[in-house]
Amino acid sequence: MIFCVFIGYSQGDVDKVIAPINGKQQFCGVKHWENKKARLPLEERGDPEYDNSGYPYLFFPGLNPEGSRLDLATVIQDSMCVKECPGIEAKQVGCDETNSGSNCPGGIVADSYPTRTIVRFCLPRTIGTEIKAVYQDMMKSFQGGMVGQYIFDVFNASTQVGICMVTSFAYCLLYIGIMSLFAEPLCWFCIVVVEIGMIGLPCLLGYKWYDVG
Q: Which residue among 104, 125, 146 closes a domain?
């Protein structure tokens, strides 16, 4: 397992595993080459297909709580890589104008709003009415599906599931305790049963053979 982790870390690109992806399907915070060039040594790759190494965070202009309309497709499509999250001050942050389009005039985010940083995502500190409505619609649709019903059934039965887990753990401890107390008598019992079987079985077979003869 350690060998597999070493190979994956040394041969793979860990940054792409944890990097968010913007609306143009580009990784934030990394340089990206085409698959053929990515296998070459770094000095032989040439210019990257795109370079977002200076913009590790993902910002969503469409999630502005003051926005009048929320469209999930537009939110994902307009998401951009930025140098840092605007934070509680909603400060102007840098972005890559070539990869962010009209939302990044002059290399600065156009519609900034207060955010909190979660991993590498800049998410709004407050939730607007439109976002709440979309969230409620999504939850209703999810609960109406088979998978959603299954998950919420498990959640509703969480108390019973927790009791069963605690009880099974207690039974395991009880079983281990009993086995540790009676380990020696149990071993002797097994030895006696095996010895009786080894002695009695030949005697029984011999008796049957003599009786038949």
A: 125
Q: Dig out the tokens for 57 from the structure.
A: 């965070």
Residue 138 falls inside a structural domain: no
Q: Beta 57-59 vs 50-51: how paired, if at all?
A: unpaired
What ranges make up the beta strands (E) of the chain? 31-32, 50-51, 57-59, 80-82, 115-118, 121-124
Claim to verify: residue 36 and residue 95 sit in the same structural domain? yes
Q: Is the pLDDT of residue 104 over 90?
A: no
**Residue 166 binned pLDDT confidence (cut-offs 50, 70, 90):** very high
pLDDT tens column, 115-152: 888 888 888 887 766 666 766 766 676 667 777 777 77
Strands 115-118 and 31-32 come out as unpaired
Q: Is 110 within a domain?
A: yes
Q: Are residues 6 and 54 in the same domain?
A: yes
Residue 101 is predicted with a pLDDT of 65
Q: Which two tokens stand for residue 172?
A: 């395991």
Looking at residue 119, its amino acid is V
For residue 111, give its domain range: 1-125
- Say whether pLDDT at 46 is over 70: no
Q: Which residue from 78, 74, 34 is spatially nearest to 58, judged by alpha carbons?
A: 78
Same-domain check for residues 12 and 77:
yes
Whether 103 and 186 share a structural domain = no
- What's the CA gap between 152 and 147, in Å, rounded? 9
Q: What is the pTM of this model?
A: 0.55
Residue that has been written with the tokens 């041969």 in this structure: 11
